[in-house]
Amino acid sequence: MEKTKILYLIYSLNAGGIESLCMNILDNIDLTRFQIDFAVVKEKNTEQFYDVKVKSYGMKIFAVGDLRHGTAHKYLSTRKDIYNLIKKEKYDVVHIHCGHWDKFPDAISAKLCGVNKIIIHSHNGQLTRDTKLYRIRCMLQKVIKQFYPFIATDFFSCSDLASQWAFPSRVIKAGKVVYIKNGIDLNRFKYSDELRTKYRHKFDFKDEFVVGHIGRMSEQKNHEFLIDIFNEIVKKKSNSKLLLVGEGELENQIKSKVSRLNLLDKVVFLGTTSEIPGVLAAIDVFVFPSRFEGLPVVGIEAQAMGVPVFASDKISNDVKITEAWHTISLEKSKEDWAKIILKTNLLRANEKCRKNVEDAGFDIRDTTKKISNIYLEGRENEH
After folding, report:
1. What is the CB-side half-sphere exposure of residue 168 using CA atoms within 13 A?
2. What is the tens place of the pLDDT at every residue in 259-299?
3. Same domain, residue pair 33 and 101
4. Residue 383 within a domain
5. Measured at the alpha carbon of residue 20, what is the angle toward residues 156 and 285, in degrees to the nearest 5?
6. Do residues 322 and 356 touch, judged by C-beta distance below 8 A?
7. 82-121: per-residue pLDDT in tens?
8. Edge-to-edge, what's the strand order for the sheet holding 325-328?
9. Is the pTM of this model over 0.85?
10. What are the phi and psi torsion angles at 160 (to 5°)?
11. Which residues pair with 287 in a beta bridge?
């Protein structure tokens, strides 16, 4: 049987949770049976964080959309490019890694081009709040998601919140949503004192209390509040440091706030890195005050490493799988957050947590097997 040709529609190949899951799948899927191409919204001839890795597997990356003009032109040109790509390459599967309303035309394109399997995969439980357009976009989401069952063949979701956001209730009640756990490579996320010593030395941490965060610097991740929380921690524990991993559109704004609060000597901006296990080994706590999430991959990774995680109540409860996870209401003040973090027993339970993650089904090998079987449905009898 010929390889099953799959197209991943994904916003970018920069470092991020959805991208990380896609790379984990790529690392573990049987590439003698599957060809996975990526359609990415970016300028042609530009390179993003995961480009080298994707190409090393012999997979293709297609830059779609004309980013030289305004938002409307960018959106329409992206939809046109995706239609032409699907029509030309004749994919067996189109896997849309987003449940937002604005990807609906891509599902229609796949349907018009005769794609056998069209998957809508919801990774988030909300849209980024735009003061001007947020309500309009939410209204469009409520309306357009009603039409997904007429176009898509499969519905994937990482959590109940993500399902409720992306799919109509009749699809959920009928049991048509397949829950895909955001699996990780448990062999990589294994804590050791040696790893901690190595990366504490690399980041020049000595006896400091290190708060960590990994995530794109965007409105969703709530870095402004994170900096406020850290500022309160410093007032109570002066030898504290904050290690920030990630980049994004709000990076300059966040750096300005750090400067205003006189925290420049306390905050380390690491940028993007592939050394996430080392980062998680080096820090003492992970603070995660997101405004919304689906089921964050980094939350699973942190728990597998036994890092105490303090997360907002806006993150799906599905991610709480170990005793290392602590939920705090986003309604609580920065002072409350700092107090709760500092009074909690911060001892790691590394091997126990890692075993909990494995037992909960978050091993990427299990995730990949489940997805592979769905990709192959309907092709078993070919040839």
Report:
1. 13
2. 999 999 999 999 999 999 999 999 999 999 999 998 999 99
3. yes
4. no
5. 110
6. yes
7. 999 999 999 999 999 998 899 999 999 999 999 999 999 9
8. 267-271, 240-245, 209-214, 285-288, 309-312, 325-328
9. yes
10. -60, -40
11. 310
Supply the range of the domain harboring residue 162.
Answer: 4-183+363-376
Provide the residue type at 348 as one letter: R
Considering only residues 103 and 379, tell me which one the structure prediction assigns the higher pLDDT: 103
**Residue with tokens 């990807």, as numbered in its chain:** 103
* Domain CATH number, residue 80: 3.40.50.2000
Phi, psi values for residue 2, rounded to 5°: -65, 160
pLDDT at 383: 43
Does pLDDT of 70 surpass 90?
A: no
Cα–Cα dist 127/368, whole Å: 27
Q: What is the residue-wise DSSP string for 14-59?
A: SSSHHHHHHHHHHHHS-TTTEEEEEEEES-TT---TTHHHHHHTT-
**288 strand-pairing partners:** 311
What's the one-letter identity of residue 84?
N
Are both 199 and 333 inside the same structural domain? yes
Mean pLDDT of all residues in 166-193: 96
Q: What is the pLDDT of residue 225?
A: 99
8 with 38: CB under 8 angstroms?
Answer: yes
Across the range 188-208, mean pLDDT stands at: 97
Q: How many residues does the chain have?
A: 383
Q: Tokens for 373?
A: 């079987």
Joined together, the tokens standing for residue 196 give: 């901690």
Q: Name the region of 355 (left: φ>0; alpha: ψ -120 to 50; beta: rest).
A: alpha
Q: Per the domain annotation, does 188 fall within a domain?
A: no
